[in-house]
Amino acid sequence: MTETHLHGPVLILGTGLLGASVGLGLSRLGVDVLLSDPSPTAQAIAQDIGAGRILGGGEDDAAALQPQLVVVAAPPDVAAAVVADALRTYPEATVVDIASVKASILAALRQAADAGEIAPGDLSRYVGTHPMAGREKSGPAAARGELFTAMPWVVCAHADASPAAVRTAADLGADLGATVVRMDAAEHDAAVALVSHFPQIASSLLASRLMNAPAHALSLAGNGLRDTTRIAASDPRLWIQILSHNAPEVVKILHGLREDLNRLIATLEDPGADGALLDLAKLMEEGNAGQARIPGKHGSPPRAFAVVTVIVDDRPGQIARLLADVGEAGVNLEDLRMDHSSGHQVGMVELSVLPGRSEELTQYLSDRQWKVIQ
Amino acid sequence: MTETHLHGPVLILGTGLLGASVGLGLSRLGVDVLLSDPSPTAQAIAQDIGAGRILGGGEDDAAALQPQLVVVAAPPDVAAAVVADALRTYPEATVVDIASVKASILAALRQAADAGEIAPGDLSRYVGTHPMAGREKSGPAAARGELFTAMPWVVCAHADASPAAVRTAADLGADLGATVVRMDAAEHDAAVALVSHFPQIASSLLASRLMNAPAHALSLAGNGLRDTTRIAASDPRLWIQILSHNAPEVVKILHGLREDLNRLIATLEDPGADGALLDLAKLMEEGNAGQARIPGKHGSPPRAFAVVTVIVDDRPGQIARLLADVGEAGVNLEDLRMDHSSGHQVGMVELSVLPGRSEELTQYLSDRQWKVIQ
Predict the structure, then answer these.
(1) ipTM
(2) pLDDT for res A301
(3) Can you tell me which family this protein belongs to (chains A, B) (predicted)?
(4) I need a labelling partner for A128 at 20 to 30 A (CA). Which of B40, B108, B109, B273 fits?
């Protein structure tokens, strides 16, 4: 059993995908986890998959529970109320929430303190956190204890938070294998508006233009369209809450987008005008510059990998055979993409490797009769 | 040697990435290919890599050449002039261009016919085509004969084109292993505006907002941001030409985007207003619906694959070992993604398989000690 920072017990309020995943991850580490959810079904499933045991569900005296930590895994629009309730009910516990917006929840808790709904000192035990992880499925049945492995876990300390509570919040992320990142609630909300909420909006706006597209147009779709629209398949219910709770930060970015879009439309309405091509060049170059700033794998500085492209038949085992040869070549794979194309039973596999290793890999694979496009 | 439809000789005007790739692909099939480029260096490199032999470069009498087909692989802004010149110089040849916009080139050629710069009948020998293929590199040194394999090759017949010329244009795509798709120039330009030019613009507009982002915000970037901005790294020089030549079609789509964006900004400026959440839900659901219409691999109807996620250490050979086990399980891999996360030396590999096969694969891999998140 791995050594943990948390000693428990840990109470999880809300046993959807994320809450149940937290419970599973902690339970496997030997931490005593209690579960509670407004839905009896959700909490029963969470217990069945091993995420912990239902609060008050048998031998325990729920009222006597003194959790070290309460994890509020409720949707953004009820998170603040559940946190306030937990602060009142468990006067010794650190209480964290894991919702994807932070400033609106902290503001609601400050209001609750001002209104006397929670004691003035209670706020010192609250810390907002945000694990940057998710799945395309939802609900406790989709929960996985490894969901947070190697993902950022943002811990948002605030002026009234006690150092002990902040440490406990960080311990939760660390115990679950995540990478703890510290920033305040405002910084967090501005950051996720830019790197998460804005791409979601852009992808949804882009994909929605395809609704009435003729089928022959869609038959020409390539990886560019597929990549840019993949997240447009996300769950509307969750995103409505996220976007409405972080609206001021998102709107700031959308104002910038609107300015750029207006300029671009004016340019393309008269592409023969003086300076039009220069305007287009500027848009494209700004896109180049912004894209180049996104960090690479493992938080390393952005780095261009060398891409070795291999043509494979679409038969079971072909990709495996190729990857086995790559492994034997002793070259580490930094990334892999399969190229989807229409109407043919062959495809391309793009292998990304460190720039210095591509010649060697190309030679090795060519020697083994692979059709390589370096 | 594979049997070809074309008998040649084929003259390629323009030996950049695409022209040289056409030459390489045809030369390997045994077709006699001649090369010409305004840049002596580019044409020499193309000859050196085996794309064909330089026109007039030795034993041949360039003036006596009677090509079956002339392939104009010049940039969009000079393509029409080069086509017109080829129609005059080679009065028996079919002439195709492979630029990524089609209506503006056809219109320029009609003007040339009206102005008497080409003979009235010459237009019957011209057919516009567009191979939907490319690489992140450019120039003849990056050329690959397999570049067009399994990719769509759009053939745009027009009212004055002879059936024989259209057939020759289609033969070119077929000989290079591409999938021939027929539509007229206007349909083509509207289609690529939507599935290629618009995603490029959306990605560039999105990425350009990252230019001045704080580094701590970018450290939270996940696959959503990476996917939506990948094509923002594209070459500005080429895209300036493409966008300016297809401006009317692109502008139509951008007007629709602007309407949606204005509505969204108004909604997010007052997210507490009546109907605001419904508006957000509508945007997200339209995005869902549009994304679901994009055809899957091999042109099949869009289909949700089951995703089996496996956690792997970031060591050479791990992915290969995993894929070897997938191959042994006898389950065909429809897609594979590696999940990039920051700061950790482990990663996730997402294996997409037919929905009915995921349980079996999960069992097989779990039995072999892989950490599987189904």
Answers:
(1) 0.82
(2) 47
(3) Belongs to the prephenate/arogenate dehydrogenase family.
(4) B273
